[in-house]
């Protein structure tokens, strides 16, 4: 009988211990969790993390694309400027006169080789130039003309720097033909294309030409004529 009672008490004691074990485990876990929460809260409250949001660039992708676009535009502009400079330099180099062209810019003529009463034709800048060594009679005839009756009024002294030398471009002022010397109604030059007559001073006297024969720029130094 006593053994049965002892066995029953032991069984109840084991059941009570089994029932209390989950409760104790729960209490222990709650206590541990509470300690962890307190520790974490304390750690968070005690650590100050700086705020770097003000230094963070917004739209960094757009800024990167814009910088690349600026770089490409600048590079393209620089390359274009270099090519334009080279093109302009080549153009100006080709445009400038060569040595042989500069040599023809001025023509020198020895007047001592031209007899009195004779014509000489020289080429200057691709144009014919008439050089006439006039006689005293031709000079008097040129000065005796009534200038007011001329189509293009000019005194002979306005056209000849030295009376004995008449230097003119040999191009008719009508349509650009080359007149013939010692011909025409006035003893000067005659244009066979349309019948213009020029006197011994190269002034238009008859025909369709509107102006006198043009006088080029020239200087006479002794017997040396420099045209241009």
Automatic annotation (TrEMBL):
The keyword Metal-binding applies. It holds the Pfam family UCR_TM. It is a single-pass membrane protein. The keyword Protease does not apply. Keywords: 2Fe-2S, Disulfide bond, Electron transport, Iron, Iron-sulfur, Membrane, Metal-binding, Mitochondrion, Respiratory chain, Transmembrane, Transmembrane helix, Transport. InterPro entries: bc1_Rieske_TM_sf (IPR037008), Rieske_2Fe-2S (IPR017941), Rieske_2Fe-2S_sf (IPR036922), Rieske_Fe-S_prot (IPR014349), Rieske_Fe-S_prot_C (IPR005805), Rieske_TM (IPR004192), Ubiquinol_cyt_c_Rdtase_Fe-S-su (IPR006317). It is found in: Membrane; Mitochondrion inner membrane. Its EC number is 7.1.1.8. The Rieske protein is a high potential 2Fe-2S protein. PANTHER family: CYTOCHROME B-C1 COMPLEX SUBUNIT RIESKE, MITOCHONDRIAL. Belongs to the Rieske iron-sulfur protein family. This is Cytochrome b-c1 complex subunit Rieske, mitochondrial. It comes from Basidiobolus meristosporus CBS 931.73.
């Amino acid at each position: 009988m006593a053994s049965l009672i002892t066995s029953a008490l032991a069984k109840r004691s084991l059941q009570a211990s089994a029932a209390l074990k989950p409760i104790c485990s729960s209490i222990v876990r709650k206590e541990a969790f509470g300690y962890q929460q307190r520790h974490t809260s304390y750690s968070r409250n005690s650590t100050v993390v700086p705020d770097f949001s003000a230094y963070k660039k917004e739209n960094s992708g757009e800024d990167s694309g814009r910088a690349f676009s600026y770089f490409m535009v600048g590079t393209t502009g620089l390359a274009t400027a270099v090519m334009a400079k080279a093109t302009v330099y080549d153009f100006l180099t080709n445009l400038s006169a060569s040595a042989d062209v500069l040599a023809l810019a001025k023509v020198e003529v020895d007047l001592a080789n031209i007899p009195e009463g004779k014509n000489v034709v020289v080429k200057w800048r691709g144009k014919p130039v008439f050089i006439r060594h006039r006689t005293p009679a031709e000079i008097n005839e040129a000065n005796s003309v009534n200038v007011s009756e001329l189509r293009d009024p000019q005194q002979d002294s306005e056209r000849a720097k030295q009376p004995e030398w008449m230097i003119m471009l040999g191009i008719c002022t009508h349509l650009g033909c080359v007149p013939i010397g010692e011909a025409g109604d006035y003893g000067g030059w005659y244009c066979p294309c349309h019948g213009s007559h020029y006197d011994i001073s190269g002034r238009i006297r008859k025909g369709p030409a509107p102006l006198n024969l043009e006088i080029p720029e020239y200087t006479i130094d002794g017997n040396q004529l420099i045209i241009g």
